[in-house]
Amino acid sequence: MIVKTTVNQTVIELVCGDITQEETDAIVNAANSRLAGGAGVDGAIHRAGGPAIMAECRKIGGCPTGEAVITTGGNLKARFVIHTVGPVYRGGGKGEAGLLASAYQNSLNLARKKGLASLSFPAISCGVYGYPLREAASLALSTCVAFAKNHPELRHIRHVLFDQRTYDIFAQELKKITP
Question: Running DSSP on this structure, what letter comes out for residue 132?
Fold first, then answer.
């Protein structure tokens, strides 16, 4: 099942699937601040993309929470990987919402600066970082919708969600944000 909406000239789409199989210009990696690979989405992207991604990550050195950096896509179908670091959820009173919105915003800005037309996101911070799913979905989608209103050059934004529950919550939140 696919839910999609068009904002300005950008298609925003939700799919349930494997982000390592995406054919968009870039995929977003929910990275750690050391860019060291890890579990979940991060580990899957590094395994599927091969050693070229890690080699570039080592050269970059790290990425602060809320920021984003870009590397090759290695062996992936996507040409690039945008690595962003979402916040670890610590109850919501430690600036997590701003940091999560920044992770999405800075990923979108980097895609635009690189002239990319399409981008696929995972559910950043929703795995081991413990961000509440509904709140994360609302922040992710509202950030992407606001971006699309002002930047039509990014034609396709996909949210590739790892299970049906996550997909359903993102779909509910998208309906609240867009008519």
Answer: -
Predicted TM-score (pTM) of the model is 0.97
Question: For 120, phi and psi rounded to 5 degrees?
Answer: -120, 130
Asked if 168 is an active-site residue, the reply is no
User: Where do the structural domains in the chain lie, given as residue ranges?
Assistant: 2-177
Catalytic residue among 18, 25, 42, 168: 42
d(CA 102, CA 84): 9
Q: How far is CA 130 from CA 36, 40, 91, 179, in A?
A: 19, 12, 10, 29
CATH fold group of domain 2-177: Leucine Aminopeptidase, subunit E; domain 1 (3.40.220)
CB under 8 Å to 58, separation ≥6 — which residues?
A: 35
Residue-level pLDDT, tens digit, the chain, 179 residues: 789 999 999 999 999 999 999 999 999 999 999 999 888 899 999 999 999 999 999 999 999 999 999 999 999 999 999 999 999 999 999 999 999 999 999 999 999 999 999 999 999 999 999 999 999 999 999 999 999 999 999 999 999 999 999 999 999 999 999 86
